[in-house]
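Standup notes
- HV: blocked on the assembly model, inputs below
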Amino acid sequence: MGLGRFVVTRTLNLVIVLFAVIFLTLAMAGEATDNVVRRGAEVYVRGDIAEQCRSQPQPSFCRDAAAIQQQMRTMTSRYLEDIGLNEPWWSPKRLWYKAYSLATLNLGESYYQRSYSGSNIVRDIILEALPKTVLLFSTATILSLFLGLLIGIRAARRPGGLLDRLISTIGVASGTVPLWWVGIIVILFFSYTLRIFPARATPLIPPSDPAYIPSLLYHMILPLVTITSLSFGSWAYVVRNLVIGIMQEDYITVAMAKGVPERNILYGHVLRSAAPPVITIVILSLSGSLGGALITEAVFDWPGMGRLFYQAIGGLDIPIVIGLVYVTTALYLASIFIIDLLYGLFDPRVKAG
Amino acid sequence: MAQRGIRSLWRDFAKQPEGILGLSILTLLLIATSIALTSLPQETFTEWSDPTYWTRYPKTAAPAWINLFSLTKQPEHLILHQPSINEDIVGGLKRVTHTYTLDYAYDDFSNDISLNYFLNYGATPPQIEFRVTRPDGEVFSLSRTTAPSPPPQISIYRLNGSISSADRILRNNVLQQFSKPNCPFSALNDTRANVLIFQASCDKIDTSSRVLKGVYIFEISFFFFGPVDKVQTTELIVGGRVFGFMGTDDLGRDIWVGVLWGTPVALFIGLTVSILGTGIGLMYGVASGYFGGKTDEAMMRFSDIVISFPLLFLLIIIAVSTRMTIGLLIIVLVVFGWPGLSKVTRSIALQLKTLPYVEVSQLIGASSKWVMIRHIVPQITPYVIASVALSVPGPILTEAGLSFLGLGDPTLPTWGKILNDAYVFGAGARQLWWWIMPPGVMLALTAISFVLVGNALDKVLNPKMRSL
């Protein structure tokens, strides 16, 4: 399998998954949202007709109730035809239209949610939340990566030692404890019992205020520390496993035999070989955190995409839910795609199939 | 041979402390499951989300054992079912007396006292007398009433009645009997019956509003007039602020019961998804690797597609558009959960199919199905066993997360659901730690136990396949 074919299959995979997600979301929620729009169209048309009948000169159909009904039906169906709702959700035209809307981030309007600036455009609401999610989770990932590298390498120098066993235990344990549950407990203890940090991570001042950014950063401390302290263990465990694996390679043995100092071997050779898988995990955990951190954000009330998701689910604000699903799916698929391509470029074994 | 194999495997497994730890936690979970399935009333499971079932329980009561760590003992919520029963004839009438004896050694008053009774009687309603004998020897008559007259044309009337300390007549009765010449109404801080019943008398102890500790005897007597009349059951509830092993939530639900019920539900979800998913992944991977070529290519592309599905979002979309049930959840988790394993089994099958004995088997005309099931699957099984254990926590944590979002099966007592209730009712802000800690600890313990057992099994069964 050549690189060209590899790129083609990965692209195909991306497109198929994206369409399957669109298809499934429409299959599940399409009918319900259509009904909402239909009802909305009827209300709109009724208002329009009332307006027409009040104006002078009065149109002819206003004198007869049956004629008004007839006019309402034709106007509603014309309106629905204009926006493409005369076709069922599974028609190819509508699927393509959805894909096109997604590509242009035209995700419709929310039912209830508003952005800080008061907009009800789903795109605006999501774009307002996205940077905050990225801020929190990329900071947490970088911090835990740093700690994980530091501790993981140290543990790998003496496999079976005290630090190694400690890290292996912490790595396994912290990976299985639900982060959001720890969040609830941390909030209970630090916010309500000790009253050190605010319980809600959303600043009370509006984003337009110059004091917003410092306030946001202060509110970020508790979630950031919680996420980092729960995830660095798994990172250290992964790094430790990678490093121990690489240390058994022949070229490391040769370097040791030559008398290269252990420091140089670890930070020169070993880290360089460990970089590609580590970068993969970084990208995956970053893209995974976009939506996977939904519950964590909701618990800490951090004003990112996860909390938006939670609020939209609570209020059954379907356009927002679907918009978020599309955006996070697209970002997730894009990151998988990029990782695959990077691997295809740098790892000859992938091309060989 | 197989037995020897298992014995030596067990010996290897037992050498690993982590594996043994995991297995011990798993045993505890199985014990919790069997307690839930055998000794808890079925209604606590089916009526978990029905607040009317839990009215006899206290609301947001702390666990009873916190009294061990505190100098002032909070009154424990008591639900007493087993009175000593005495029957005699008084003035030609049958009198049935149920006597409840309780040692009240708490430092605060009861919230309320209620006595529930279930009677059968004919045309003439029975007379009911409720009284309490206090440790200082005083007897308070709490209530003297006649049961309501049955509707006409009913031969046996069944009455579900109750006497409560909140009742105005009962309160006045207690107040009159409590006040003495040197202890007038005006000297009392709190004139509620539930307080006065347990309060030391003013003329015996100079400081007012102190709890009189000691043995209280609550007696309820029924005077019957007809031959069919009888007492089915009675129940005395002495309301308190601490209850049970894990306390209760805002609806009065016993959290210990919920946590116990959560165990079989979680294990069922985890094991079903894990076993089904592993089975599908195993067969799919073996078939893909064994057939090879274009079939392999197509099958692997398909599994790539399935693996890159955003599962949590899909579940959320399903949950907001239809009613989520545990069966639906399991189906979705299985449908999207198998591809990870299929990659591994495929690569092993690719190696195994070139082995001489497999080729010989093919040459002598064995069918593909036969070769795969007889020669390839058994070789992969050790790997798969560890994988079953390792893929149990995933579905359990997914279900918990979904339930926490309020998108799980709304009727089941799952750990995620209990945490969702706690979150919605603001348990964090109200410091109700007993509502938050147990479900999360159970989740973490379950996940850790399977990971530990899985890792240990992996080391024992696949020493060669590990890089370390």
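- HV (later): unblocked. The radius of gyration of chain B is 32 Å. The interface with chain A takes residues 18, 301, 304-305, 308-310, 312-314, 316-318, 320-322, 393, 397, 400-401, 404-407, 419, 422-423, 427-429, 431, 433, 436-437, 439-440, 443-444, 447-448, 451-452, 455, 467-468 of chain B (CB under 8 Å).
- Next: hand off to the docking folks.
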